[in-house]
Write a structure and sequence with these properties.
The structure holds two protein chains of two kinds. Chain A is 47% helix and 14% strand. By secondary structure, chain A is an alpha+beta fold. Chain B is of the alpha/beta class. The chains are: A alpha+beta, B alpha/beta. Chain A: It comes from Pseudoalteromonas rubra.
């Protein structure tokens, strides 16, 4: 029995984008609606909570805020809100309050997505909202880089440690030592337990901390055979496990507390200490980088680098955009190299001639993620004499590359490492090598050396590296055959889209039904961007910064650079999230995405991003290859 | 029906009726139980119910259509809403056709209440029934089942009109009460307007049920708390 909610249908049919729908579609929509009433001044959407509906204002009006409290929009009868959260990671980006008494119709996300897929006009409405759904989705993510969205429960790494009220102070102190905690909760077994689990706040009656032992026991010369009841703090300030870390920190600062019992549904589940918050903060990438420089040996460094994965996961969970994640991971990688080089020089002595250690590929582009090879090389001053000096640099290279391997950066399969004598050259030899690549381009040779065109000086005499980049920037833009060869290489890997714009997936093997998002997505995109960047003589290394230069040079038709930026950001974000999820599941992070695990909406956006790559590749072919043929 | 004033005994009364009833469908309805009187509003499950009838006398008139919308304090759920047009046991008067717009030809094709009773009761089971103006749905439902099954039906009820009467009366000052100043209209559309709720077409069972659900949500938000126990609302 299909019933007609004609009040709802009639209303929706009078407002875009619903007015473009057929009667049948409206009927379906109306029959899935949930209706909610909000009194003036009440909160409808809370920042950061998950969102599963598109909201239509049926009566009344609401105000949409930015997170800094600034009014963003006011929406009245017939207006929509919540779509931004639905289009990105299904979290509320802009909190919403009822301005007047307000009645809303809520459309479930599943239906919203299905309608976007089935009804073009409906989808267009959300895409036309600003400059395209993909760009919109991406820029929303950028806005949401907040370091204060972690919940208190993420800090609880251990079981609750508690002691009975009647036990002695000495017993309590022993337990604290054994368990290595700085505070204990005290429970009273005779305290009645509520029958109603909702009402059950456990039997906790107090808290005892290191500080209590110092001030109330040691300083006062108190008998440690007395029971803990004598010295525990009875006034408990508690924090809910769903509160934000930031709030817990504020509570501690306000009341000058070092410990907070954490409750879940009123029941204590643990204690967090101020030091937990500080430790959590130290996982932030900035402090992590600072810590690298303090490590005193390769072993220490390797041990320290073990938390690299959690730093990465945390950045991702804080919704950092791909540029930020890539930069942070690259800065960390670079810092580890710098520290290794310092340690190497400590061990091997002062270098006999000036040198520069360079990073190549993704690290040079500031696009490093967690699964990565080490690609590096050495530029030596022209006074270098192999017989006299190479012993030193071979040892230096081995020290650094082995150290990197211990820190989790795999040795490069292609042997592009400073340990390879082929990539330990004098500055003038490097110059000759680059000139040869540009002047006598052979696609096969360039295929293996394209990585050298993303180059960054990491340590030592970095002018040696800058001079090489300068040379490339000057020569490449006036070398059409070189550009054609690079373009040709950039077209070798195509996006995984079939003729009907479906995903083309691996048919068998270990990665059946998956697609390699690096090989078929981010890599061909950065290859393509590199060609354009070389063509305009840009000296930037990062793909987004290269795109900025390309935009300024007006190399591509209007709008194309923006499309590429959005596509790169979207594909990179899917890749980053995939890797973070793998790490969280305790698995080895990789690049193999199973599209069916993505929501329909993500699939749609991903296809759109691949389509951008596809078009951009066709353009690349026309722009550079034809030119080469004509010459 | 005298028992219905005795709210504390609703769970007992349902248990008793479940044993007494001779109709399987009614037994299932009673066995689903009634929500405990001290259930807070935040956890209560409601269903708004509206009948259109051939006239106003439950002794002589019958039900022509039924609309219902399940809801709670946060949301009304259209996907679980129901609407039926029924063939009444008594003829359709012209006057009522003007009111509910259901025509003779629609009614001729329609099923008898007995045919849809199982589904109707299943939709109501375990929920607190909410109506606007309590003197229609309960007596008509009871009478219609008396006629068809030889036994009636009992259930607790929240009447948004009665709540609105209470709210508006409390709003009057002592002096206004002495002067017997009258309260504003508590009809469905007028009540809704006070809460900023939109105008819905009246006398369509489904629209009226949704309108009633929204009205209770609004009344709860404005005049009660989420901890209010449902026994203070039903009758």
């Amino acid at each position: 029995m299909q019933i007609e909610h004609f009040e709802i249908m009639q209303f929706l049919s009078a407002h875009p984008p619903f007015n473009a729908l057929t009667k049948r579609a409206l009927q379906q929509l109306a029959s899935e609606v949930e209706v909610g009433y909000y009194r003036a001044g009440s909160e409808i959407l809370h920042y950061g909570e998950s969102i599963s509906n598109l909201y239509v204002v049926r009566a009344g009006s609401v105000e949409v805020y930015r997170r800094n409290g600034e009014l963003y929009n006011r929406i009245s009868e017939g207006g929509l809100f919540g779509q931004r959260g639905l289009l990105t990671n299904r979290k509320v980006r802009f909190p919403v309050m009822a301005l007047e008494d307000t009645l809303v119709y809520c459309i479930p996300v599943g239906l919203f997505e299905a309608f976007c897929d089935e009804h073009e006009a409906f989808a267009d409405f959300f895409e036309a909202d600003d400059s395209g759904g993909l760009i919109q989705a991406v820029s929303e993510q950028a806005d949401n880089n907040d370091l204060t969205t972690a919940k208190v429960k993420t800090l609880l790494l251990r079981e609750l440690v508690s002691v009975e009220l009647s036990r002695s102070i000495r017993d309590a102190a022993r337990l604290m030592t054994e368990e290595q905690v700085s505070a204990l909760l005290i429970f009273d077994p005779s305290k009645p337990v509520s029958d109603d689990p909702e009402d059950d706040d456990g039997q906790i009656v107090g808290i005892l901390s290191d500080k209590d032992l110092r001030i109330k026991v040691v300083a006062e010369g108190l008998d440690t055979n007395q029971s803990v009841a004598a010295i525990m703090t009875r006034e408990l300030t508690i924090v809910d496990s769903n509160a934000y870390v930031f709030e817990a920190m504020m509570m501690m600062l306000r009341d000058n507390l070092h410990h907070l019992p954490v409750v879940h549904k009123r029941r204590p589940i643990g204690v967090i200490a101020l030091s937990d918050i500080l430790r959590y903060e130290s996982q932030s990438s900035l402090l992590f980088v600072k810590g690298i420089m303090e490590q005193q040996s390769v072993e220490d460094l390797a041990h320290y680098a073990q938390s690299l994965a959690s730093v990465f996961v945390r950045l991702v969970n804080e919704d950092a955009n791909s540029h930020m994640v890539g930069t942070a991971m690259s800065v960390i990688g670079r810092t580890i190299k710098q520290r290794l080089l310092e340690l190497a020089e400590d061990e091997l002595g002062t270098p006999p001639v000036p040198y520069c250690f360079i990073a190549l590929g993704s690290m040079a582009r500031d696009e490093q993620l967690i699964v990565t090879d080490q690609d590096n090389a050495l530029i030596l001053d022209d006074t270098f004499e192999p017989d006299k000096h190479d012993g030193y640099f071979a040892a230096l290279a081995k020290f650094v590359c082995d150290g990197l391997a211990q820190c989790g950066y795999k040795l490069c399969d292609g042997g592009i490492m400073a340990t390879n004598p082929q990539w330990r050259l004098r500055a003038s030899e490097w110059q000759a090598q680059f000139e040869d690549w540009v002047d006598n381009p052979k696609p096969e040779a360039l295929l293996h050396s394209s990585i050298f065109f993303d180059l960054d000086g990491v340590y030592g005499c970095t002018q040696l590296a800058s001079r090489l980049s300068e040379l490339v920037a000057k020569k490449a833009k006036i070398a059409p055959r070189f550009l054609a060869a690079m373009a040709n290489n950039a077209l070798r890997r195509t996006p995984p889209l079939g003729f009907f714009k479906d995903f083309v997936l691996e048919q068998d093997g270990e990665h059946k039904h998956s697609l390699n998002i690096k090989r078929r997505g981010t890599a061909p995109l950065s290859d393509l961007v590199r060609v354009h960047a070389l063509a305009i003589g840009s000296r930037k290394q990062n793909s987004f910064e290269r795109l900025e230069d390309i935009k300024e040079a007006q190399l591509l038709p209007p709008g194309k650079v923006e499309d590429l930026e959005a596509a790169l950001e979207y594909i990179a974000t899917i890749r980053i999230r995939h890797q973070a999820r793998k790490i969280e599941q305790g698995k080895q992070p990789d690049n193999n995405i199973l599209p069916k695990r993505l929501s329909e909406f993500e699939q749609r956006n991903l296809k759109e991003a691949f389509a951008v790559l596809d078009k951009a590749q066709s353009y690349l072919k026309i722009r550079y290859q034809n030119k080469a043929i004509l010459k | 029906m005298a028992i219905q004033g005795d709210i504390l005994s609703w769970p007992n009364r349902f248990a008793h009726l479940a044993r007494q009833s001779n109709d399987e469908r009614l037994r299932a309805f009673y066995n689903a139980g009634v929500q405990l009187p001290d259930t807070p509003v935040s956890e209560a499950r409601f269903v708004a119910l509206d009948f259109e009838t051939t006239g106003l006398n439950h002794e002589t008139d019958d039900i022509v259509s039924v609309g219902l919308v399940p809801f709670d304090a946060r949301r009304a759920y259209c996907r679980d809403a129901k609407h039926w047009i029924l063939k009444p046991a008594t003829p359709l008067h012209e006057e009522s056709v003007v009111v509910h717009q259901i025509t003779h030809s629609q009614v001729r094709e329609a099923p008898d209440l007995d045919t849809i009773l199982k589904e109707l009761l299943a939709s109501l089971a375990g929920r607190v029934i909410v109506v606007h103006y309590r003197h229609i749905e309960r007596p008509f439902f009871n009478q219609a089942l008396m006629q068809r099954l030889g036994e009636g039906i009992e259930f607790p009820l929240i009447d948004t009109m009665a709540l609105e009467h209470r709210i508006e009366t409390n709003r009057l000052t002592w002096w206004q009460q002495i002067k017997r100043q009258s309260i504003p209209s508590i009809r469905l559309a007028d009540s809704r307007k006070r809460y900023g709720l939109p105008y819905y077409i009246a006398h369509h069972a489904l629209s009226d049920a949704l309108a009633t659900a929204e009205l209770l949500q609004a009344q709860l938000q404005h005049h009660y708390t989420l901890q209010t126990e449902i026994k203070t609302l039903w009758m």
